[in-house]
Amino acid sequence: MLTWAIALRVLGIALLTHGDSRVALVLLHHARDMALRDVGAKDARLAVYDDALAAGLRARGKLRDAMRYHREALGVGETAASLVERARTEVEGGELQHAFADLERAHALGANVDVDAADAAAFARWIPKWVNVPPHAVTATEGDTPAAIATHAEKMLATGNRVGATGLLRAAVPDLGEEPTRSALRIYVALARASGDAQAARAAIAAFQAMPEAERSAYDEMWDLSRR
After folding, report:
1. Are 89 and 185 members of one domain?
2. Pick from 199, 138, 208, 205: which is nearest to 173 by CA?
3. pTM score, whole prediction
């Protein structure tokens, strides 16, 4: 009954993992719609489709929409997997205390909670000892997501390629939307550093102010750049 929905979800997750988030999001929407028709809104099997769709929305910076599907997933039964997925979205939105609470609940349910290096840096003082940070965790540098673009641009900046980084980052800005996210903040910070763009620095400051729990080592630097 769920064969096609399962196939679409698996394909969507694979595309998301490999950086094709736009196509992945379309497939994950279709997979969730098919599963909803097949099993109904109150069936616990729908949760994995809600979680996958939320992950796709998070990758595109659509956090309010992602949280809607997290609520749907947790509404049919609180599982560690769904709590971890919601925590990832909360981290991306700078809601670190909420993310910490969800990870604590997931841990209490027996989950082995892993985070990548970027998430560990975001948690700063909140990350507990029972969260496992793999020693060789790698953040994707290729793909169409804001996070991948930010990582790629940061690496370009580290090698002195300011012109290339500026071009990459300017092309990404119109796709960011208006929701404050950690990836958008990284893009604005990198763009301000690469180009000296005061407007990008002001956008970074606005993102810092909207996400007061986010790591703030670049805050003073952005203030300086914004006044040039």
Report:
1. no
2. 199
3. 0.88
